[in-house]
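ESCALATION

Customer reports they have been waiting on this structure for their group meeting. Please prioritize. Original submission:
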Amino acid sequence: MTVTPSHTPGSETDGAVTVPTARAATPAGDGADLASASASRKFLARATLVTASLSIVGSLLGLVRDQSLARLFGAGSDTDAFLVAWTVPEFASTLLIEDGLALVLIPAFSMALARRARGASGDPVRALVVATLPRLCLAFAAVAALVAGVAPYLVRALAPGLPDPRLAADCTRLTAIAVLAFGLAGYCSAALRAHRRFLAPAAIYVAYNTAIVAAMFLLGERWGVRSAALGVAAGGCLMVVVQLPSLWRQLTSRKRPPGGTGADVEERPVQLALVAAVLLFALCRQSQVLVERFLASTLPAGAISHLNYAQKVAQIPMTLSLMVITVTFPVVARALADGDTERARSRVERDLMLTSCLVLLGTCAVIACAPQMTELLFQRGAFTASDTAATADVMRVYAVGLLGQTLVGVMTRTYFSAGRPRWYPVGAMAAGIAVTSWIGAATVGGWGVAGIAAANALGITVTAGLMLVGLRTTRRDGPPSVSIRVRQVLAELSRPVRAAVIAIIAGAFVASRPESPVAGLAAGCLTVTAVFVPITWVLCAQSHASALRSVRTVTRRLTHGRSR
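Update from on-call: job pushed to the front of the queue and completed.
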């Protein structure tokens, strides 16, 4: 399935991208602009629906994966060993799929597509692939081999207090394969998303989690928790397989769009400074996991497992809310490639508000119903009632930082959407990690895993605040970039936050009344929704009207391909 907007008069069709051309301000031109804007909105809606559907399926399979891990191996030392080894693919996922390669390659492919649309000589897209893919493959393979070779030392550095480091080292060697697989999967995903092909990239976590679950049930009795590590490696390979056919069709297509009428876009190769800035930021962000597991390894066996299960469930609202920018990030990158900074700013501000409201609704449900969620999802087999209580406590604390996590996810793409190096996000993330490390070290002795979760929430919130402040201004003499109206954004964000506090109190009270966890969860979620949605709507009514007027103005006056 490919989501493709309908072709409209006076537009250029670039693969699945409809790029309206600049035209004179005539009544006929305005009508074509409105038709093009309408087609673009319909395309974004369809693409978001496709991405949302597969993201939900992937998240549900992620829950099945965690349930299977809890049921088969519990929350003991074996699971702790696997989770330490799982740090490697988690790092690789952030660096190569979610943040790293996507932030570098989507703007690069967007620039190449813009040059192709304007009739540049040769094929800029294929030239970009030839210049980058072979070198990246060699780098991925070298890192995978290095991780496998130093696995025992890596485990000792990550979790010095781990009871069974040999098992963790064996799992690390198996998961090292995922470094190469995730690198290729991330490359395919970035290229396809820049081409406005979202089905295959959205399906990768469906394939990944399916492989892990299948490996645990098929090989768990014989291999123990090593079966999960093997499933991680197999899942990474499936991520590549599900995307290759679609990418191959894009790269071998002989269709070329007609020459555009806008100004030519300069050729800009992928800069080493940009790669370094993105990778350093992603490393800093993912080092939160290193800090958490390093501190948790000094606690009794099972602490790492409780933290992991709590995070995986609590992060679901963030994952689902960020699926919006999976679709809109290429839009922002292409708008900046065309020099349309106003369109990019408007899109980013709307993304900040929409994702914040979505994640806050999920945060309310997680905090209000954490015990019921944990019992229903995990309390069976080797996962005991005491594990449920410990995991639920951590989940509630961790969920406090979900808004910060979501804002950082949106703003990260904003900073790097122009395809140029930005070092401010690295400094903001480093400051957040410093806060996480200091607070975590100070509280782990008295609060245990809950202290680690609180440090995580506070650290990422500090990072979100710093990154938001950094988007206040942009250099007038510099290249196109995004700046937002910070005061207005903060004022609008405060309204759903206030609604969330009220919804959490009401939801927690109602969820605790029934003895059945099913009834408690259902009652709590319904209460949260019934309280949060109308209060947020009332508080944001004025801003909704203003936003609607702004959208109408933008759709009248701006087109995607118009340069300033």
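Sent to customer with the following note: The first strand starts at residue 11 and ends at 14.
Escalation resolved.
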